[in-house]
Amino acid sequence: MAMQLRNTWRLQRTALLWLLLAVACLHIQAQVLGDVFIYTNNYTFDPFPDLPADFGPEVPDEGIDGLLRVADPEDACSPFTFSDTSQTWVALISRSQQLHPTNCTFDVKVRYAEAAGAAAAIVYDDVYEALIIMSKPRDHPEPGIPAVFVSEKAGIIMRRLLTPGQSRVRIVPVSGSAWMSLVMSAFLGFLALTVVLAAFYVMRSWSGWLGRGRYGRRGPQELGGGPGYGGVAQQPIPAGLPACAIRALPVMRGVLGAVS
Questions:
Q1: How do residues 83-124 score in pLDDT, each as one tens digit?
Q2: CB contact burial 70-84 (16+ within 10 A = b; e otherwise)
Q3: pLDDT tens across 10-30, in order?
Q4: Which one in 13, 66, 122, 206 has a CA-CA gap of 20 to 30 Å to 226?
Q5: Is the separation of the CB atoms in 165 and 67 below 8 Å?
Q6: If DSSP states are collapsed to H, E and C, what string results for the chain?
Q7: Mean pLDDT, to the nearest integer, of 172-177?
Q8: Which residues fall within 8 angstroms of residue 216, CB to CB, at 6 or more apart?
Q9: What span is annotated as the signal peptide, if there is one (predicted)?
């Protein structure tokens, strides 16, 4: 019985691990809502996942393509030291969330990039963490250009690959087919989650039934009061010796005297 309970507990732990894995997969699928491509005339690098900001216009269906330029200052919490409206370019901005008197909110960074002539803004994280959705205070005005958020790793890679005047970037939203893929992935994840929960419930019910069957109420056959195994009638097990049998037992007087 102990071995069966241990096996049941192992199965339950395995089911719980699969449950956590399914939830993690759904969370990862929900995080990716667009891609950022960096490329040169000769090579296109693998895309970086991004999350669009909760303010400003959305990234158009056709995407945004332009030169990639690092913001100056890098955190874009003050007006840029340069301005360019002659060509389409995208500002690469550092989040810079360390405590500092000049720190600012995401929308302020994007509005300074817009004032410098940028067509869009890419804000990269400065710590290793999951992607977040950039938001702004309610009383702040809406920026007029799209903005997306990428990871610290993506920002570091883009900065190292950037060649001034040559490196370009393309920001694309999730296409219709990609949305369908996300929906199907979410549905399959939900289906797997349901199967895991059902298996967990069945195993828990089975272990409870097994415990009740072994240690719960026993019928007369198990107690020896009815036909036992092999078709042989078993006599009930007496609860104790009768009074006459107890009186017939020998008395050890020496032991009793020593004890008294």
A1: 999 999 999 999 987 666 678 999 999 999 999 999 999 999
A2: ebebebbbeebeeee
A3: 655 665 555 555 555 544 444
A4: 206
A5: yes
A6: CHHHHHHHHHHHHHHHHHHHHHHHHHHHHHHCCEEEEEECCCCECCCEECEECCCCCCCCCCCEEEEEEECCCCCCCCCCCCCCCCCCEEEEEECCCCCCCCCCCHHHHHHHHHHCCCCEEEEECCCCCCCCCCCCCCCCCCCCCCEEEECHHHHHHHHHHCCCCCCEEEEEECCHHHHHHHHHHHHHHHHHHHHHHHHHHHHHHHHHHHHHHHHCCCCHHHHCCCECHHHCECCCCCCCCCHHHHHCCCCCHHHHHHHC
A7: 66
A8: none
A9: 1-30
Q: Is the pLDDT of residue 3 over 70?
A: no
Residue 80 tokens read as: 């840029």
